[in-house]
Design goal:
The chain is an alpha+beta fold. The chain has ten helices and four strands; from the N terminus they run αβαββααααααααβ. It is globular and about 60 Å long. This is GDAP1L1 isoform 7. Residues 1-72 form the GST N-terminal domain.
Length: 250
């Protein structure tokens, strides 16, 4: 998922050490009782650190940045209250507001909308099969060995099915992909501006344009789905990531 990749990039750039456990979405491991006890929303990533279990992407990013600090730990956000912080936060919010679910579902359902995409071919067949068997799969919940998980799971699946059907609209997908292209153009223009300022000896925003920040770490995630829209992502170290549960080493 986009979120898993962004969290992995943040952890890598901060130089943190953690144990990882891959959660296979095609094999439906996110529906297993052990994972649903961690996150009833069945979404990845989930991090476990000491007594904390965090499954919301924004909260994970903020927690990692707030918790892991020090002389030898890279800060991905400028000091709070600074112009740099406000500007970087603006671009993080701009990227986080993009409809990632729609990109994911839509481009898996309609790979013809992407160019040289890294989406595996089996993903399209799997999500189509899931849609076709949705009613049967939901009926099986009555026989689950974990009845306390059935109600939230059923609610989640109904919402997911409705969302995927909405994202199966090619006209809608073309519209949001056009909007994505404009956002990426805006980000690329900002990165180019920072690059020129840095080359001229002016470095008003510290890491923004020099080293990865929270918003720039979102960009490589797009390259899996939209390599033709990510020309500027070469400025950020590319590390692949998948659905994952992370446990930090204290």
């Amino acid at each position: 998922s986009f979120s898993s990749q962004k969290v992995r990039l943040v952890i890598a750039e901060k130089g943190l050490v953690c144990e990882e456990r891959d959660v296979s979405l095609p094999q439906s491991e996110h529906k297993e009782p052990w994972f649903m006890r961690l996150n009833l929303g069945e979404e990845v990533p989930v991090i476990i650190h000491r007594d904390n279990i965090i499954s919301d992407y924004d909260q994970i990013i903020d927690y990692v940045e707030r918790t892991f600090t020090g002389e030898h730990v890279v800060a991905l956000m400028p000091e709070v209250g600074s112009l740099q912080h406000a500007r970087v936060l603006q671009y993080r919010e701009l990227l986080d507001a993009l409809p990632m679910d729609a990109y994911t579902h839509g481009c898996i359902l309609h790979p013809e909308l992407t160019t040289d995409s890294m989406i595996p071919k089996y993903a399209t067949a799997e999500i189509r099969r899931h849609l076709a068997n949705a009613t049967t799969d939901l009926m099986k919940l009555d026989h689950e060995e974990e009845p306390q998980l059935s109600e939230p799971y059923l609610s989640k699946q109904k919402k997911l099915m409705a969302k995927i059907l909405e994202h199966d609209d090619v006209s809608y997908l073309k519209k949001i992909l056009g909007e994505l292209a404009m956002v990426l153009d805006q980000i690329e223009a900002e990165l180019e501006k920072r690059k020129l300022e840095n080359e001229g000896g002016c470095q008003p925003w510290g890491r923004w344009g020099l080293q990865p920040t929270q918003p720039t770490l979102s960009l490589p995630s797009f390259s899996l789905f939209f390599p033709q829209k990510s020309q500027r992502t070469s400025q950020v170290v590319k590390r692949m990531g998948y659905g994952v549960r992370l446990r930090f080493k204290s």
